[in-house]
């Protein structure tokens, strides 16, 4: 019941019980130097009580009192030791979480019994007055400041008066000495209490820091999941969704051709469907493998394949659109610009060419790739119907489109612009998608 054990760990969450504003530890955190000091103080109080109780008994027995008197003191000493030990053992088990029985409501009665037995022991043996010093610590820990102060004063009065009344000790020295001891014990307790509050303050700060860290980690994880989800959605939109859309359009065209008896056109369209499905399968495997590009094809080779596939699909759909590719002479062979730049430029070209073929009703599309000292440029021009870029918004059905292209380019530090004018009278004036991205020296190969 001596639940001032408190910081035996302020590893600790120190909560206060009304039975003495006594901090109760929570052993959920690591031990600290301050917590160890507090536990040492706590244990020292209990050890001091036990040692002084034994010394008092030995000194009393050495004085040669009558057997009856000695038997009474020994019995009273044993009873006091048992009651005190019972309270401290329960408190230790409760603080350590080894028992769920909360007997703190009995703290007041327990302290009253301990002090009552001690007073009786002082009446029979003045040597027991030295037990007052650890009892001061215990009393202050288990009672409020006013109640504790009055109780300690009463105990000191017992020490000063009872030995004189029982003619066991006389003199002012004993009274003054015990008073100094009481003050020292009280100061020790208040120091202990101050350290306890400081430890609790540190614990609260540590918990706040941990909570803040956990919130930041959760926010970072959530942001990472959202970013990865958006990135993966863009990849699917720019690869698989475009492929599925082409397959859908081609299959409808093939059915129409079959209904009209144009078996040759239907066969050509089915061949394009097969090629498109194969490309989509390759892209799917690549996405599953690493979540980025469908394969490590250099940019120039990928753009050449893109223009050929776009023309073939357009032909299969009955369009006469031509798709040209102009490549800077500094980019030789089938090389590229490397890494993320190749991937971003390819995705922009795929989206822009697909939009021009599908939506712009263009007759000519030109893809131009240029390399300068510190930057590369990609321009996709079509002569189809223009549109108002500011009026384009991403919806659940429109996919990522311009927003996705713009974000891809921004992620590699580039600039993305769209120049297009919608004109109902002229049928439009075409669209230019322009990209500028920084590259390192020697980036073109």
From TrEMBL:
Q: Which Gene3D superfamilies match?
A: 1.20.5.1930, Histidine kinase-like ATPase, C-terminal domain (3.30.565.10)
Instruction: Provide GO CC annotations from the record.
Output: membrane
Q: Where are the transmembrane segments?
A: 43-62, 68-90, 110-133, 145-165, 172-192
Keywords attached to this entry: Coiled coil, Kinase, Membrane, Transferase, Transmembrane, Transmembrane helix, Two-component regulatory system
Domain spans labelled Histidine kinase: 231-441
GO MF entries: phosphorelay sensor kinase activity; protein dimerization activity
One Pfam match, given by its short name, reads HATPase_c
Which InterPro entries does the entry mention? HATPase_C_sf, HATPase_dom, His_kinase_dom, Sensor_HK_TwoCompSys, Sig_transdc_His_kin_sub3_dim/P, Sig_transdc_His_kinase_ChrS
Coiled coil regions in record: 202-229
Q: What is this protein called?
A: Sensor histidine kinase
